[in-house]
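Title: Prediction job returns without error message
Component: structure pipeline
Severity: low
Priority: P3
Assignee: unassigned

Description:
Job completed but the reporter wants confirmation the result is attached to the right record. Sequence as submitted:
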Amino acid sequence: MQIKKISEAILPTIWGDFTMIGFEEKSNGKNHIALIYGDFINSTSILTRIHSECLTGDALFSLRCDCGFQLKTSLKMISSIGTGILIYHRQEGRNIGLINKIKAYNLQDKGLDTVEANHKLGFKTDERDFTICSDILEILNVKKIRLLTNNPKKLNSLKKSGINIIERVPLIVGRNNKNSKYLDTKENKMGHILS
């Protein structure tokens, strides 16, 4: 187990009150959170979103990606069905960090796509580690989920970690004229299911 539970509190939102649970990685002290909505003790499967941190999309309303749109839609969907989990996975920019993400954006401004920009900076296409999220689900005693994702890598990583994903729920939102190339690259080079 790479992670430990630290504390929890109520987080009131426009979609209702979530229980926010803070987790800490044992090796480096990095923090992640889970937002829990409703009572899922008797649920046979839980609608779950693993949302990787995106400061620009989630907090600064960037149109370069679909992240902020996915975050809002996930919270709304979870609250509308009355139960679910959103793990806020703090691995900014597919885990290259905020400053490197800005550097990648600069390269994209010059014509590279998101994958080419990561490679030019010396990173893999995707540096994220989803096993942390499996540990969080294990701590929460969640064994069966319906996963809100368009990303097969996320799906496969969780399955390998022992999470029983009984359904993939598409989350195709937020396409606009500023992020069309980005989304096309995610679909064509990273295998995301966007159509």
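Comment from assignee: result matches the submitted record. The helical segments are 55-58, 67-81, 92-95, 98-109, 114-120, 131-139, 152-160, 180-190.
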